[in-house]
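Hi support team,

I've been running sequence recovery on a batch of backbones for a student project. Most finish fine, but this one hangs at about 90% for roughly twenty minutes before it completes. I'm not sure whether the input is malformed or the queue is just slow. I've pasted the structure tokens below so you can try to reproduce it. Let me know if you need the job ID as well.

Thanks,
M.K.
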């Protein structure tokens, strides 16, 4: 094993992170990471800038995206690694996902207004800049205006699942997400399995088996939400199902102040995991061309 480390899950201002794509790469460099994948929610808007900065700073880079799927309990997020930024399938998918957000966000704002919170869609648009609007942007405004003390409290009180101003957005069925990531030239990896909120191990294994049948190639083993026990458990599951192991911090800049780029709950992600992903992406591309 080399002693190089990587981060395969992070967000920029293209979605709900607070650092620009180039700044994420600069931070990766400062933190001594040798490779990075940017995985913004529902967009590849940051990929070009990040890739250019990575090339100039000598950080290896893999394009990525994070997509929310329909899931009966918690959240199912699918990471797509090595997606082709020029793919028409990907462009259609991201457009559709962003429309679903545009449909949800004004409802959240209206509900907040009804609850006596002074906030406008315009403020949210300013907060998100050119990026895809996410709840962390709304949360940041609530903190700044003093309605809550932290992003976490904003989710607990207003924005989280089942909270006072919670509205779901349309999500795509897993089958479709796997298919679209695949057709965009990407490798589907199941993000932070802990967030699936499986009731027991048997249920978790069933979900992973179903995903494997749909073309899953990897499992996010290391993540900021994973304890050591969970890292061990997901590592075993990855081996059982013949899946690649991946990992990342899910860095969001100051929208998740406790998370440092390259560190996931005290752990670092080995370079070998990045290399295996890149190697697999190359093989899939060669197979698709045939
Ligand atoms: P959205 O894309 O608008 O559905 O928002 C999802 C983002 O909100 C992701 O970055 C999550 O990590 C973040 N998020 C979801 N629940 C919470 C929570 N309870 N506390 C802090 N951040 C959260
Ligand atoms: Zn996010
Ligand atoms: Fe996620
Ligand atoms: Fe994420």
């Amino acid at each position: 094993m080399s002693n190089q480390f990587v981060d395969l899950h992070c967000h920029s201002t293209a979605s709900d992170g607070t650092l620009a794509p180039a700044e994420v790469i600069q931070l990766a460099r400062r933190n001594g990471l040798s490779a990075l994948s940017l995985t913004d929610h529902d967009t590849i808007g940051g990929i070009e800038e990040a890739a250019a900065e990575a090339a100039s700073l000598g950080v290896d880079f893999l394009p990525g995206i994070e997509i929310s799927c329909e899931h009966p309990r918690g959240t199912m997020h699918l990471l797509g690694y090595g997606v082709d930024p020029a793919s028409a399938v990907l462009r259609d998918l991201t457009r559709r996902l962003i429309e679903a957000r545009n449909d949800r966000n004004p409802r959240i704002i209206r509900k907040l207004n009804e609850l006596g919170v002074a906030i406008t869609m315009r403020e949210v648009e300013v907060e998100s800049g050119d990026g895809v609007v996410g709840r962390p942007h709304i949360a940041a405004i609530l903190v700044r205006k003093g309605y809550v003390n932290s992003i976490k409290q904003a989710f607990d009180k207003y924005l989280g699942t089942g909270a006072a101003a919670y509205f779901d957005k349309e999500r795509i069925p897993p089958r479709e997400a796997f298919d679209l990531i695949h057709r965009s030239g990407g490798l589907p990896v199941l993000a932070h399995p802990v967030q699936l909120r499986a009731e027991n191990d048997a249920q978790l294994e069933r979900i992973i088996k179903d995903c494997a049948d749909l073309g899953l190639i990897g499992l996010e083993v290391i993540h900021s939400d994973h304890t050591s026990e969970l890292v061990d458990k997901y590592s075993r599951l990855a081996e059982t199902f013949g899946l690649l192991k991946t990992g990342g911090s899910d860095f969001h800049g100051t929208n998740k102040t406790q998370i440092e780029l390259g560190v996931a709950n005290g752990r670092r992600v080995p370079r070998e995991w990045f290399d295996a992903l890149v190697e697999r992406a190359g093989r899939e591309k060669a197979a698709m061309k045939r």
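--
Follow-up from support: It reproduced on our side and the slowdown came from queue contention, not your input. Residues 9, 11, 66, 250 surround fe (iii) ion (ligand 4) (CB under 6 Å). No action needed from you.
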